Amino acid sequence: MLAAGSPERPTKEPGRLSKALMRLWMKPATIVANDRLADRFHLITLEGPALADVVWLPGQKVQIAMGSAFTARTYTPIEWNASAGRMCLLGYAHGDGPGSTWVRTVAPGDQCDIFGPRASLDLSRLYDPLFITGDETSMGLAYAATYQAPIRRVTTCLEVGDVEAARLAAGHLGLHDVVFCSRAGHVPHIAAMQATLSEAAAVGASFVLTGNAGTIQALRQNLRLQSISAARIRTKAYWAPGKTGFD
Prior knowledge:
The chain is an alpha/beta fold. 28% of the residues lie in helices and 34% in strands.
């Protein structure tokens, strides 16, 4: 655990207004585990009475305050045990921002405040089989879709920077029906992802496009060229290069 006052664990207290909003709208929770699965992938478990008796559906999101009600980062829970008041999420520390710093450094006993769960992606209205695309930040969604509805057929294709680390993290989670495409270059891996879309379209899959906004745009255009109905497609950008504030 990093000491208070270190660059990655700021000691600045939230202001009075921020504290009031956090008490009013957010659920307090305690970190009980931060397990590093592989490289930058962390499985984080949170508990607290406020997390009990919560109705959560796969695809819904939570926002976690980064020391202030006005600075939060969004995560997709992978499971939520309402009877135990326990939630798990898969975090990916992709940079040096507050969200990545929190994923890397949060430790058992640390407190946090959660807003949600809230609507993000509604998977319930999509027909099987389900085909999910994304990147490292999308692996948690793939897990939630796979294990919260075991009878649903789910296949995933992820663009990743480190294929071996991503495969190791997926293995820890028991995710096996995943195709990994290396981001060695924009055109080659996008073309590989488009090929997997075509295979899924041929068997009548529904599509959930997540992750990098640029990749989503390219894949959605490919589906349009294949005349895939918009009713079979859901999209959710988690991030874009050089931009913040994605919800």
